[in-house]
Input
Amino acid sequence: MTHRRVVALATTALTGLLAVGVPQSPAAAADYYAGTSGKSGEALKDALHDIIATHVTTLSYEQVWKALGETDRDPAKPQNVITLYTGASMPWSQHGSATTQWNREHVWAKSHGAFGIARGAGTDLHHLRPEKVPINSERSNKDFDDGGPLAETAPGNHTDSDSWEPGDAVKGDVARMIFYMAVRYEGGDGGPDLEVDDATSRDKKPRIGRLSALLEWNAEDPPDHFERNRNEVIFSRYQHNRNPFIDHPEWVDSIFETARR
Output
């Protein structure tokens, strides 16, 4: 069993420790997603965009450090965070740019759309995760896809010249973060207009792939307690919006399967 899954099981037993002060929000219920009933495809995407782009609090890039200490806290060691691709537990204080530290991994690579670290897409907690600096560097701005040799810095992950395949335990997490970004950022608020396509390329266009792999990953790795709790913390304490695909992973196919055809 991977460390990431062990953490998920431990989290279930230690919900009180991880979620101290985090209320069970009604946001995941019908009232938060009012207006989505009966919709699918582009109509559902538009409705969800309006919901998750409204009344949002944006963070500075500096504020992200503290937020990740809570959203990705190790339930067994509350002063630590769990890194994304290997599930390693590291002290929250051990963040920075040194090779022995963890950094802020942009799951939607910030060069794909050139949004950098600006408030909004560049600081959105729904796609920022802790990761060791060498792993962050090896993943770089690669798209996501199956295949490639084992990554040098990240056991259980694979990579080639233009793609990264995370370990099975977090493939769904990665997919749902990518799908969130494509719905949240439509260009109307001065930010990028992000799209998911079925290609891999390291260009700077506001797109990322590979859609077919991400659809499979969402189906194969459903949301676990760690991911759901993370969504709740971001909603209740920081940005006040949710990743709808954690609450309703079935909406991924409704919106993006059509886009693949």
